[in-house]
């Protein structure tokens, strides 16, 4: 094999150090998610809200379902469904993170998705529900409460879509 082909192959192979750095990013985001949820549980009574601005409250609510309380009242089986889904998504994201570890923005986005999936998984497994606390509302319109893990998933997913759209160009 000639040196140029070896160099090209090495440039395409995963980078263990960068992969580890992206995992550390995910761990930091998971830590931030879990810390904020613990603080909410310790300092805001369940079912109450603290008005921060005319359009934003900190609250303490729980969600046994997924986004927008999808399947929230399903009787408990949905916790296993969403936990299994989080594990599958996390496995796929880890593979993609490994494969793209030499890049930057795509792995950052994937790390955010991983962190969000695992942050909410921790809640489901430890508490049987997800703790939500960010509550936005305006002119009678109310967005469902969410948390740091949800933000990470949304921003990460948006980043993945943007990077793939740019890659397709």
In short:
This protein is of the alpha+beta class. It has helices spanning 3-12, 16-43, 77-99, 105-127, 148-168; strands at 49-53, 56-63, 130-138, 141-142.
Strand order across the largest sheet = 1-2-3-4
From the spread of the alpha carbons, the general shape counts as elongated
Q: What proportion strand?
A: 5-15%
Low-confidence stretches: none
The overall strand count is: 4
Order of helices and strands: HHEEHHEEH
The averaged pLDDT comes out at 90
Distance between the termini: 32 Å
Helical fraction:
55-70%
Number of helices: 5
- The computed structural class is alpha+beta
Main sheet? 4 strands, antiparallel
Q: Gyration radius, to the nearest Å?
A: 19 Å
Features:
single chain; 169 residues; alpha+beta; 4-stranded antiparallel β-sheet; 5 helices; 4 strands
Task: Please provide a written account of the structure.
This protein has helices at residues 3-12, 16-43, 77-99, 105-127, 148-168, and strands at 49-53, 56-63, 130-138, 141-142. Helix content is 62%, strand content 14%. It has 5 helices and 4 strands. α2 (16-43) packs across α4, α3 (77-99) packs antiparallel against α4 (105-127) and α4 packs antiparallel against α5 (148-168). The chain is elongated and about 65 Å long. The protein is an alpha+beta fold. The chain has a domain at 58-169. The mean pLDDT is 90. The chain has a 4-stranded antiparallel sheet.
């Amino acid at each position: 094999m000639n040196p140029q082909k070896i160099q090209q192959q090495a440039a395409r192979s995963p980078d263990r150090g960068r992969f580890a750095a992206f995992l550390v990013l995910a761990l930091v985001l998971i830590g931030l998610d879990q810390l904020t949820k613990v603080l909410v549980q310790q300092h805001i009574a369940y079912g109450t809200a603290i008005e921060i601005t005319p359009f934003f409250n900190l609250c303490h609510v729980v969600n046994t379902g997924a986004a927008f309380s999808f399947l929230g009242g399903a009787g408990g089986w949905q916790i296993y469904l969403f936990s299994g889904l989080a594990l599958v998504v996390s496995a796929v994201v880890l593979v993609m993170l490994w494969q793209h570890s030499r890049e930057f923005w795509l792995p950052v986005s994937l790390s955010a998705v991983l962190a969000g999936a695992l942050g909410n998984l921790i809640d489901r497994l430890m508490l049987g529900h997800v703790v939500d606390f960010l509550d936005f509302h305006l002119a009678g319109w109310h967005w469902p409460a969410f948390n740091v893990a949800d933000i990470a998933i949304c921003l990460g997913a948006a980043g993945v879509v943007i990077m793939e759209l740019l890659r397709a160009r």
